[in-house]
Specification:
single chain; 175 residues; Diphtheria Toxin Repressor, domain 2; elongated
């Protein structure tokens, strides 16, 4: 038996170990870049213009926005992912995260306004609490909207005053 055969049998190998990312890690990174590219394709033109992109990537994103065929769009997204391997995706991801967090803040604010509206309609003591938290309010107009909204509900009318009350509360509560 030769020396090469003994090394194979014993599991000894003289080849250096590879310290780079595994094939799975490279595939996961490629999928993450492709997903980021899909998020860019989903942006409208105004938002896309606010993201700093190389010209080739911007052209590829705009081309993907025009493609309606499923397979063609999939291939274009793969191409965008390939182009993104040559740039730093961190600033793009940070910009998208910034826009998404603003949306989350807006949603939380809307829920806060809706809770106040529901409390003002259901709980008589909520009006005093609201008055102490927001003293710059036109209380007469707010009382009128509360009364008209309750009347609308009793008579099963369209929620005109209900919406007007929301708009008034939004103007008061929103910073």
């Amino acid at each position: 038996m030769t020396v090469e055969n003994k090394a194979w049998l014993t599991g000894e190998d003289d080849a250096p170990e590879y310290d780079g990312p595994s094939k799975t890690q490279r595939k996961n990174d490629a999928h993450a870049l492709q997903t980021l590219g899909a998020a860019l394709v989903a942006l409208n033109r105004e938002r896309l213009a606010q993201v700093d992109l190389p010209e080739s990537l911007r052209d590829a994103v705009m081309a993907a926005q025009r493609i309606s065929a499923h397979e063609g769009r999939r291939r274009q997204l793969q191409f965008i992912g390939k182009l993104m391997r040559h740039i730093d995706p961190a600033p793009i991801q940070a910009r998208l995260d910034e826009w998404n967090s603003v949306s989350a803040e807006q949603i939380a604010n809307m829920h806060r306004i809706e809770r106040w509206r529901d409390r003002l309609l259901a709980e008589p003591d909520a009006f005093d609490e609201f008055a102490t938290q927001f003293p710059h309010t036109d209380f007469q107009q707010l009382r009128t909207l509360i009364r008209n909204t309750q009347r609308e509900r009793e008579q099963s009318k369209p929620p005109k005053n209900y919406r007007a009350m929301f708009q008034m509360l939004r103007d008061i509560i929103s910073p």
